[in-house]
Amino acid sequence: MGYVLAIACCLSPLASQPSHAAQILNGTLADVQGDVKIRRAGSDLKRPASSGARVEPGDAVITGTSGRASIQFEHGKLGLANSTQMTLLRCMTSRDEVFAELALTAGSAEAYINMERRKELWFDILTPTQLARGEGNKKSATRLNVSHNAGGTTVTDSEVGRWRYQPIMLPDLPPAVQAVLTDNAKASARVKTYISAELSDSALTAYEVVSNAGAPDIAAVQTQTVPQTTPPIVAPAEKQSAPTPPAVLSAETSPMPVVPVAPSPVPAPEPLVISPAKSRVFSGAQITFKVQGGTGKRMFNLMPGGMEAGSTLDADGKYTAGVIGSGTQTDVVQVRDEANAVAEATVTVAAVLQLTAGINKVPSDMANPMRLQVMGGFAPYVYSISDNKSGGSVNEAGRYKPGKTGGVTDMITVTDDAGNKATVSIEVTAPAPLVPPKSTNTVKPKLESVTAQTVFVIGDKWTGNPTITYQWLRDGTSISGATAKTYTPTTDDAGRKVTCQVTATNEGGTSTEATEAIGILKIADPVLSGEPLVGSTLMVDGPGKWTGSSPITFTYKWIRDAHEISGATQASYKLTDADQGAKISCSVSAVNEAGTRYAGTEQVTVNAAPIKPALTGPLTISPASLRLFYGTSQTFTVTGGSGNLKFSMAANNSGGSVDQSGKYTAGKDIASVPEVDMIRVVDEANGAVFATVTVAAELQLTAPNNTIPADSANPMRLATVGGFPPFKCRYISRGRTGTSRTSRSNVWWAASDWRI
After folding, report:
1. Phi, psi at residue 167, to the nearest 5°?
2. Which terminal residue of the chain has fewer beta carbons within 10 Å of its beta carbon, N or C?
3. Is 671 contained in some domain?
4. CA nearest 195: which of 457, 343, 5, 37?
5. Residue 413 and residue 411: Cα distance in Å, rounded?
6. Short-list 169, 165, 162, CA closest to 143
7. What range does the domain containing 726 cover?
8. Do 126 and 31 fall within a single domain?
9. 476 and 531 fall within a common domain
10. Cα dist. 56→42, 98, 537, 673 in Å?
11. Domain boundary among 651, 678, 696
12. Domains of the chain: total
């Protein structure tokens, strides 16, 4: 089966080969975006790659989920989508052909083959299931899209007649190629051995001999052997004829010897040489390259990567370095003659060398060395003190320490690997006057309770005979006036973090140390609520107020005459006959990570339950309902019930009121419709009765016109205000009476029926 891989375009002529022998075809990485790595032949390491990197046969280019790149060749370009792994296999160039063989393990690639000129141009892309082959076109450039994933291989061509493809059987391929396509762990090592044999001097010479003999078939040439058979490439019916493609390598093909055809003696041209071959310059520097040897006209080319950084190269070989911010960049300058011989030179570019110090004025007794900063230049760097007046020193890492002499200036020099130098001057001052060291804390202060509600600072010890001051803090903010060694929390501290900052001051300066927060401390006692009567329930109206670290949990114990009441452990307690005459209180325990604190309620003496008054009969109210105008009153009569009575407004829509004698007065908030109030009466046995009062404004009847003709055609609408609907109206005319049509609030009267 045939398989081929295409990648970038850089030629490496072999000095031992004849001038007309085939040459290895290399590629150059370009258009790098996101996560892109190169795995070199024979290595398992995947290193980050950038535009301009050389890609050689046996190397693999891997793009991550966010990565994209392309590989430039002499005869075309290969674009790699994200999540793609592509390996260069056999790639060669000769007088008649340019050929690249590629293995697509996974992902998608778009091959772009240049317009064919003097040479035949070939791309072969091999996947685990397909071989796609492309030829150069003399009319236009050609593209091919190849994708491979778990679902198989998809091949899409864009130029009829220039691409062919056919299925392959993976076991028929050489073991190294199988390892690459299956991403075997040993693929890199195997493909290195395979490429070394397939692109050896003898293989390149044999390929040129076979090509000159009229059989330009790169895939048919192996080291000292050629396949005996060449399976045809299967092409669609509409494909046009094309030159015989490279034969497909097969693990089962029987090889036969190659019969070289001796070429006619041709005088060897003088080798093509470019100088200087290696240079190191700063940003913006210029170099004019000189070329010797070669054949015919020479063409200069700046390989991709240098142009992206701003470097330039004109047709006469004049190179100008681009501007970079940090690190170094290597540009590749290429010259090619008319015989396609290639020579290359490298230029390493760095920013201008600079040496800086974080501080340019230091005391002679400076305790710690100061690190100098180098920018630009070519590593490694060598540091020295070119003018050492203080008696200072600088080590190989660029750490400078002044000597004991003050009032002088030292000059430090850095020299890079290219011999460039940069200097920085540092003024060394006399040592500062001796000051006793400031106090240091040897024992951390802590808080301790003096009473149930007061804390104080204990245990702190300091060096240097300092003066000690205190400042209490609430949630990190100073508490006004709280500057003593002791502190009594207030209700403002409930649930807050209370600490104390201890400050020690002497001639050497000031040191501070903060205590931990108050563990747990009561601020206010819990309070009882409820009537101390047998049968009633007492409740702890909140567990009191506390300060300390959260969470704080509370438990309760009820106490009768200094003895715990069995089972009484809730926040409420119902008094029994056993409690009559006893003193009852509740003990509250507050617990957090700092420990447990206790607080107690006041004691209350339990009295017997009062005797309820005798029931004198059913509780009734009279009248049970009535209607009143706004502002008028009514006194209700209540009979029956038990004990004292209590009057109240159960519903008050009119703004009325009722006193404890039962006198009710309607409100004065005149509404357009009647409103309903409700009076409630409750006796000591909690019996209750209700009365309802409907309240309205006084009734009024109005007419829009008090005089109308007797023959008026339309009825006149009369209006009512106030009162209690529905309404009934009577009409009096010449001593006669009658009844009109009525509604809840309107009266209609017709002059034709009645006369006024």
Report:
1. -65, 155
2. C
3. yes
4. 5
5. 7
6. 162
7. 700-749
8. yes
9. no
10. 12, 15, 93, 100
11. 696
12. 7
Is 395 in the same domain as 470? no
**Higher local confidence (pLDDT), 332 or 224:** 332
- The answer as to whether 718 is a domain residue is yes
- Same domain membership, residue 185 and residue 63: yes
**Could you report the per-residue pLDDT of 169-219, keeping only the tens digit for each?**
888 889 999 999 998 888 888 898 888 888 887 777 766 655 443 333 434
Smallest CA-to-CA distance from 29 within 83, 64, 80 is with: 80
Assess whether 170 and 301 both reside in one domain: no
Q: How far apart are CA 342 and CA 262, in angstroms?
A: 25
DSSP string, 609-669: PPPPPPB-S--EEESSEEEEETT-EEE-EEES-BS--EEEEEE-SS--EE-TTSEEE----
Quick one: 367 and 299 in the same domain? no
Please, what is the Cα angle at 239 between 233 and 244, to 5 degrees? 40
* Averaged pLDDT for residues 354-372: 88
User: Is position 559 within any domain?
Assistant: yes
Q: Is residue 435 part of a domain?
A: no
Residue 113 bridge partners (DSSP): 76, 142
Place of tokens 């046009």: 240
Query: What residue has token string 């000189």?
Result: 290
CATH number of the domain residue 474 falls in:
2.60.40.10
Print burial letters for 13-40: b (CB count within 10 Å at least 16), e (below 16): beeebeeebbbbbbbbbbbbeebbbbbb
